[in-house]
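Notebook entry, structure prediction.
Reason for the run: the old model in the group folder had no record of what sequence produced it. Starting over properly, with the input documented here first.
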Amino acid sequence: MGAIMSDTGFWLMTLLFHGRDIIWPPIETLKAAGLIHEGARVLDFGCGPGSYTVAAAKLVGAAGRVYALDIHPRALASARRRATAEGVSDIITTLDGRADTVADACLDAVILFDVFHLLDDQPGALREINRMLKPEGRLLFSDHHMKREAIIAGVTAGGLFAPERDHDGVYIFSKAALR
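New structure, fully documented this time:
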C-alpha cells in the first residue's frame, strides 16, 4: 500500500464516506454486484472506516468470513467498532496491512474500493489479490479518482484480470484464466 494517511486526513475521509454511505448504502452496492452471498469469504482491501467490511459481513452471515485489510491503525479500529456495533464482529478478521496471512485461492471476492489510486505498487497489489482469489473469484473495483479507461487499463495491464461487467461505477473483474 502507499504511505499512511494522517489522522486528520483519515477523519476527513471517514466524514466524507459517512455522507456517501447515506446516499449510496454499501450493502445495496454490494447486493447490486450480486457476488457476495451467504457463506462467502471476502477481503475488503484498504477497508478504510469499514463501511463495506460490515456490509459484506451482513451478506456472508455466520457461515462466511470477511477480512478487513488496511495499513492505517485507525481504519482497523473503526472497522472493528462498526462490526461490534452491528453485531458482526465474529465474522470479521482484521489484517494490519499484510495480506500474506490469507491463504492462496481461498476468497470468493475482493472489494477494492477507493484505494487503487493510493497504492505505490498497483501491479503487486493485483498479483496478491489474484493469489488469494479462488479461480472463480471476482474482484469488485471502484475508484472515483479514476476514469473508466484508466480503471480497465490499470487492472488488466498485468494480464491477471479480465473485465466482466460494470454497473454504477462498480467494475467486476474475473481472473483472466477464466476467460
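Summary: Residues 7 and 74 are 8 Å apart (CA to CA).
The old model has been moved to the deprecated folder.
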